[in-house]
Amino acid sequence: MHNRHIVMLTTCPDMDCAETVAAHLIDNQLASCVNIVPGVRSIYRWQGETHQDNELLLLIKTRTELSAAVQAAIVEVHPYQQPEAIALPIQSGLAGYLAWIDDNTATPQ
User: Is the pTM of this model over 0.90?
Assistant: First the structure.
């Protein structure tokens, strides 16, 4: 079954970054909604070293066909050399909410 909708995830180092990424996605109709979740503690390996950072998690609701455009937009405005941009399929949801995602995102060219 093809999933028409996804939640994309990315993290940001601070609220300014999170709001910039979220606004960029909304203003360009690449997402219908972006939730900013503060208080995320990330432990990860980068360039051979273990790092621990406080970050904010962005939950980006969009359509599957916009995935590549959302990824490109994140890279365009994000300060990280390699930002996270992963997609999780929405298996089900309220029909009205899923229609709202469709109504508030651009149709790819």
Answer: yes
